Amino acid sequence: FTEIPDVKWGDVGGLEEVKRALKESIEWPLEYPGLFEHMKTRPPKGILLYGPPGTGKTLLAKAVASESEVNFISVKGPALLSKWVGESEKGIREVFRKARQASPCIVFFDEIDSIAPHRGVSTDSHATERVISQFLTEMDGLEELKGVMVLAATNRRDIIDPALLRAGRFDLQFELPVPDEKARLEIFKVHTRGKPLAEDVDLSALAATTEGMVGSDIEALCRTAS
Ligand code: ATP
Q1: Of the ranges 135-144, 161-170, 207-216, which is most confident?
Q2: Among the atoms of ligand 1, which is closest to the Cα of residue 176?
Q3: Closest Cα to atom 10, ligand 1: which residue?
Q4: From the alpha carbon of 13, which atom of ligand 1 is closest?
Q5: How far apart are CA 111 and CA 108, in angstroms?
Q6: Which of 139-148, 206-215, 217-226 is predicted with the least confidence, judged by mean pLDDT?
Q7: What average pLDDT does range 61-79 have in this prediction?
Q8: 112 CA to middle of ligand 1, Å?
């Protein structure tokens, strides 16, 4: 449930822009709350990472947590869902309660689309509605909860309930694209680091010929080759 991940910024290849934005919006408020006070502004409450599978959403969340040295609560969306009436909402309340206790803290909801799909999409829409309202209540209550930040990831942003996406909840949203050639080279470097590469291994050539591959594909390629 809680973990201290051991992922550094250097373990994430490419995605420079997103990394910079995450540092500013997560590390700064936790490290320099006084500055935000001084500027009479508030840090974002929630940040959503979206993009195709294997592009590094979970990896980035772990890097943020480990680099900012705050507590990290990681929740897999589907694990919160329960078939028992009221249990899913209770789960969400519990997560936020723990986060408040552990402040400064990052709560990471992986696969958020499973707990907050567009109301009406799901067949058991009443359960979904209750879960979403509970989630909204908790997020709206974050005002007083200085030092708790919600990070979420999904590869189905299109099915997330719009109420969750409006400003004031997930204030910042970043798309993690399928990596381009430059980013693929960086990812190759991450996954061959420390490995005894033969002289004729040309990472740039590999990056050039792997169009369409995402980070997890490249990782698998390097592992298989090893
Ligand atoms: P999903 O949507 O399926 O949960 P995800 O976007 O969360 O996917 P991750 O779990 O972060 O994907 O990535 C899977 C693995 O792929 C990582 O553990 C890592 O080894 C590798 N990987 C993905 N993106 C990158 C990247 N930008 N740099 C280095 N490795 C990466």
Answers
A1: 207-216
A2: 6
A3: 58
A4: 28
A5: 10
A6: 139-148
A7: 87
A8: 16
From atom 18 of ligand 1, which residue's Cα is the shortest distance away? Answer: 59
Residue 117's DSSP bridge partners are: 160
- Percent of the chain predicted with pLDDT > 70: 93
Task: Please tell me the distance between residue 168's alpha carbon and the centre of ligand 1 in angstroms.
Answer: 28
Q: Give the mean pLDDT of the chain.
A: 87
- CA terminus-to-terminus distance, the chain: 32
Distance between CA atoms of residues 44 and 113, nearest Å: 20
| Per-residue confidence band for 188, with pLDDT thresholds at 50, 70 and 90 | very high
pLDDT digits (tens, 9 = 90+) for 8-50: 999 999 999 999 998 888 878 877 888 888 988 888 888 999 9
Give dist(CA 219, CA 206) in Å, integer: 13
Residue 35 Cα to ligand 1 middle (Å) = 33
- Ligand 1 near 13 CB (within 6 A): yes
**All residues at 6 or more sequence positions from 128 whose CB lies less than 8 Å from its CB, including other chains:** 116, 117, 119, 121, 122
Which two three-digit tokens encode residue 141? 């209550």
The residue assigned the tokens 């080279």 is 185
The residue count for the chain = 226
Give the global pTM. Answer: 0.88
Nearest to 134 by CA among 78, 194, 94: 94
> Can you tell me whether residue 61 is helix, strand or coil?
helix
* C-alpha atoms less than 13 angstroms from C-alpha of 35 in its C-beta half-sphere: 9
59 touches ligand 1 (CB under 6 Å) = yes
Alpha carbon nearest to ligand 1 atom 27, residue? 13
